[in-house]
Amino acid sequence: MYAWRLHASLPKTAQPTGDKVWADVLKWEKVDPPPLPSGYVRVKLRSSALNRRDLWIGLGLYPGIRYPAILGSDGCGEVVEVNHESASKWKGQRVLLNPSLNWGNDERVQSDSYEILGMPSWGTFAEFVDIPVSNLHPVPEHLSDTEAAAVPLAGLTAYRATFTQGHLQSGEKVLIPGIGGGVAVWVLQLAVAAGAEVWVTSSSPHKLEKAQQLGAAGGILYTQADWTTELSRRAGSFHLIVDGVGGEFFPLYQQLIAPGGRIVVYGATRGNPPTLDLRRLFWKQVYIIGSTMGSPSDFHALLRFIQEKKIKPFVETTLPLSALPEALTQLWRGTQIGKIVLNH
Amino acid sequence: MYAWRLHASLPKTAQPTGDKVWADVLKWEKVDPPPLPSGYVRVKLRSSALNRRDLWIGLGLYPGIRYPAILGSDGCGEVVEVNHESASKWKGQRVLLNPSLNWGNDERVQSDSYEILGMPSWGTFAEFVDIPVSNLHPVPEHLSDTEAAAVPLAGLTAYRATFTQGHLQSGEKVLIPGIGGGVAVWVLQLAVAAGAEVWVTSSSPHKLEKAQQLGAAGGILYTQADWTTELSRRAGSFHLIVDGVGGEFFPLYQQLIAPGGRIVVYGATRGNPPTLDLRRLFWKQVYIIGSTMGSPSDFHALLRFIQEKKIKPFVETTLPLSALPEALTQLWRGTQIGKIVLNH
User: Fold this and answer.
1) Does residue B17 carry a pLDDT above 90?
2) Which residues of B touch A277 (CB under 8 A)?
């Protein structure tokens, strides 16, 4: 089969603003997959989607990178090979892949052998991918292949952060800082569908507008002076903040959160906060809750919820698989808000 | 009636190492209580106990101090005056006082009008105290007046932190940093009674020894180099950390906590941490949970638990009420681990 293989990370000095920078390290080439392991099926991919994780790995900013790597955690395709009777019902089916491998038996946290599809295991930026039968799911019927590929990693992360860890209830007020990332947009769509009043922040008026089209009650530019005061004035305080940003914004959440509220953290694109106000934390009885990816139960629940609410992922850009370098560059620029999907 | 009244905080330069420093600001004097409000009863106090809160207020280190103040949040006594038929069953009863006033109806967090007994309301370092009927509880029968007075504030704070917010389960491993504070010792006793394996830290070998007498599985001096490595080697990782310390120790808890574990914060005697490792937080799916005081339900549950497990508070020092300045000085020195109780 053919696949995009990453042979090294970009040099530290490289800015991936042009597609050309990837040419030396990321190559479309023939690879021979090992025989299908027992309990696995082979899926011919129809669509895959990008996540920031792919970019971080390409930039060498991810722990434990192994080369060569076939990236890609999101995929929708058709089962073309099975090697066990019990998996035969999947043969020829259109499937969506749960990118959580070896979660384990504890709903609270992933096991030590947990992996995300696409490094170190082979990912979806390829013609085929081999995956455990237990990671296969029927595609919700109202979704095209392109839309389906935009679901797995970001949808799963958002579902667990919002519901399993964040315990969102209908009618609650939610803040999503830094709308624009794939997970943040999914949190927005899920929370709106669950009947929450959702507010967002961004540095981009364009993204605020898009978020409101997706159902946000309002948004605020965090680049404006005293934005927290303005946000509190307009929205009041928040029962739930779902954050992938961190950094210097994180301490502000303790002002914006309602007493007894929850701050769920699934990422930290701006790094660690300069401090944590413990007195405010305990006096307001606030929860700060870590969340990453999701369990098999979370993935089931996500697909049920998408089906029930007829949610369609927000796909902003569709490109052919051959355009992966261009897609990575677009992701690095960070101007889009919806998912970037590759059609195979 | 007579009461200890605080007329000002100690001057910033004063070190309360001797009893004399209190003479100018803390006075035993005659005060005339206002008429008993409707829904209140008057309790003649038999015993009261000190909490760090009393010291912080005396040192001017507490928000919103109003003078003159009658301090004291813990009290055990006898109901001597009621002004309503529905309260008449309490007349002459030995009672324990719940120091949480106006918690409100939300189990998750106290209301805006929440207060702790003893500033701004009159506290228990006095002959009598007036308190809402709903804050009265029968004293668990196995406790003397002296022992009972050591229960309320610290026991309530510990109960909520450990069970309501911390969700401690039998068989789990618990770490209590800085054993010696009243709440920390209560957490130790409650967690041991609940069937947990409890570890403690301190700078004092004497306190570690006392903690082991109270049922701790082991303890470690945080003054020794590389104490976290040694603690992990001996104890493994912790399902629950119940912390009133914070400061430079707080980031270490994220190494010591088990994946999916809970860090409950009820205080910050060493101030705020220099940072918070968000990546570790979300990857380990850790909870950081604020907790303060407790609801009426928490107080009920605490007394039931004490009764059922026949827990006796650890009273280390008993003094007469007249020795309040000496008791505050002893609390400031911080060498004792058990409660300081005043007999009236």
Assistant:
1) no
2) 272
Classify domain A2-151+313-343 at the CATH superfamily level: Medium-chain alcohol dehydrogenases, catalytic domain (3.90.180.10)
| A271 contact residues in B (CB cutoff 8 A) | 278
In the predicted model, what is the mean pLDDT of residues A228-245?
A: 98
pLDDT for B100-118, tens place per residue?
999 999 999 999 999 999 9
Average pLDDT over residues A87-116: 97
Q: 3-state class of A189 per DSSP?
A: helix
Distance, in angstroms, between B30 CA and closest chain A CA?
34
Nearest-CB residue to A285 (from B260, B274, B292): B292
pLDDT, tens only, A198-221 = 999 999 999 999 999 999 999 999
pLDDT at A93: 97
Q: Is B108 close to A260, i.e. CB distance below 8 A?
A: yes
Q: Which residue, among B276, B277, B284, would best test binding to A if mutated, counting the most A CBs under 10 Å from its CB?
A: B276
In chain A, which residue's Cα lies nearest the Cα of B262? Answer: A289
Could you tell me the CA-to-CA distances from A226 to A46, A220, A222, A229, A338 in Å, in that order?
A: 47, 11, 8, 6, 28
Report chain B residues whose CB lies below 8 A from the CB of A272.
Answer: 275-279
Q: Using N-to-C axis directions, what is the helix angle for B182-193 and B296-309, rounded to 10°?
A: 60
CB-based contact B278 A289, cutoff 8 Å: no
Q: Model pTM?
A: 0.96
Look at residue B16 and tell me whether its pLDDT is greater than 90: no
Quick check: B272 and A268 CB within 8 A?
Answer: no
Q: Which residues of A touch B290 (CB under 8 A)?
A: 278, 281-287
Whether the predicted pLDDT of A15 surpasses 80: no
Amino acid, res. A139? V
pLDDT (0 to 100) of residue B290 = 98
Chain A environment of B272 (Cβ under 8 Å): 275-279
Q: Of A250, A283, A290, which has the smallest distance from its Cβ to B292's Cβ?
A: A283
- Interchain proximity B281–A267, CB inside 8 Å: no
User: Do B2-151+313-343 and B156-290 fold alike per CATH?
Assistant: yes
Choose among A290, A298, A200, A211: nearest CA to A249.
A200
Beta-carbon separation of A286 and B282 below 8 A: no
User: What would the mean pLDDT of B296-315 be, rounded to a whole number?
Assistant: 98
- What gap in Å lies between CA A42 and CA A29, rounded to an integer? 19
- Smallest CA–CA distance from A286 into chain B, residue: B290
Q: Identify which of A55, A68, A83 has the alpha carbon closest to the alpha carbon of residue A121.
A: A68
- Domain extents in chain B: 2-151+313-343, 156-290
CB neighbours of residue B135 within 10 Å: 22
Residue in chain A lying closest to B259 (CA): A109
ipTM: 0.95
The pLDDT mean for chain A works out to: 96
Asked if residues A321 and A24 have their Cβ atoms less than 8 Å apart, the reply is no
The superfamily (CATH) of domain B156-290 is Medium-chain alcohol dehydrogenases, catalytic domain (3.90.180.10)
